[in-house]
Each structure stands twice: as C-alpha cells, then as structure tokens.
Amino acid sequence: MDAALTEKDRYTYSDYCNWPEDEHWELINGAAYAKAAPSLGHHSVVKKLFRQLDAFLADKPCEVFFAPVAVRLDTGAEDTTVVEPDIFVVCDESKIKDGKSVVGAPDFVAEIMSPSTAKHDRVTKLNLYRRSGVREYWIVDPDSKIVAAHTLHGDKNYVIRAYDEQDAAVPVEVLDGCLIDLTDVFE
C-alpha cells in the first residue's frame, strides 16, 4: 500500500471527509493510502468473524463495526490519522458521538490481511494501533489460516499469541468471556 495522493504533503480528517464516497482511503500521519476492494475470501472472513462478535456483544455495552467506518486516532489540532479497520469493537460510547466517525482508539481491531496489505498490517498498522492504545489487535491471514493476536500489556508493548484454523475457542482477551471459533471463520 503506497501513499497514493501527492498533491499535498499532509492530509487531515477534513480532506478525508471531502473525498468521493465511492473511494476508500486511510490517513496515517497525514499520508493518504488507497484501500483496494476486498476479495470474496476476505469478505467471507470478515462476515464470519463479525457474526461471532456481534452475537457475543448482543446484550453488552460494547458495539462491533466493520469497514468502511472512519476511526480517528489523532484527534488533536491536526487530526491526520484516520483508518477504516476491517472489524473493530468500541466499548466507550463517548467515542461514537459525532455520528460520522469513531473518535479514539477502539478496544479491539481485526485486520484481514491480503498479499498487498501484509507489510502495512504487520508493521505500519501494528505500530499505529499500539501507539494509539488499541488494547487488542488481530492480524488475520486467510491464506495461511493463522491469527496473530496482539494484546496490549502496560502502555507500550503487545504480547503476541498465534492461532490457526483448528482452534475452536480463541479468547478475545479484552472482551471477557468472548471466544472465537476459527474453524468457522476459516471454513
């Protein structure tokens, strides 16, 4: 995923809001990144993972979302970081206040990796989510059928756990009691 817009050195949330609705972009520290349309396999994994999270959260105060929903991670004066995670959970309703975006770090994020986003998901977004305070970040690889679950311990470091297609009860550490069946997700 290379920065695609070069008209300006830095873009803001205000710029993001003025781009065509049929195009999907993310801003990371003011650099714009185009989001490619997902494959059918990607969509299938998103649907199955979302379905399990949604069922678990049905009677709880947290809410699960899927892309494209804007998540503003840098809401200071510059407001230069806006991402559209594949799936994310927010447990603080004050972060869902403007009706157009989520303001602040979600509690849980899952990105479904593709060959074109592998480095971006494993390096750029991993560091961004860690610095922003995302408490748990899953990198889901539908090709190898592996999940790398990163859970924030303390303020700075992620502890990593790995799971594969045979794991039927994977805990979402930040959602007490939530277990994801990867045999279904990767079916």
Question: Would you write up a description of this structure?
Answer:
With 187 residues, this protein is an alpha+beta fold. It has helices spanning 13-17, 40-56, 118-132, 182-185, and strands spanning 25-28, 31-34, 63-66, 70-74, 81-83, 87-90, 101-103, 108-112, 136-141, 146-153, 157-164, 170-171, 179-180. The chain has a single domain, classed as tt1808, chain A (Alpha-Beta Complex). The chain has 4 helices and 13 strands.
- The CATH topology name reads tt1808, chain A
What is the approximate shape? globular
Structural class assignment: alpha+beta
Radius of gyration: 16 Å
Please describe the topology of this protein.
Blueprint: H1 13-17, E1 25-28, E2 31-34, H2 40-56, E3 63-66, E4 70-74, E5 81-83, E6 87-90, E7 101-103, E8 108-112, H3 118-132, E9 136-141, E10 146-153, E11 157-164, E12 170-171, E13 179-180, H4 182-185
Parallel strand pairs: 4-7, 8-9
Antiparallel strand pairs: 1-2, 3-6, 4-5, 6-8, 9-10, 10-11, 12-13
Short description:
With 187 residues, the chain is α+β, with helices and mostly antiparallel strands. Helices cover 22% and strands 31% of the residues.
Features:
187 residues, alpha+beta, tt1808, chain A, six-stranded mixed sheet, 4 helices, 22% helix
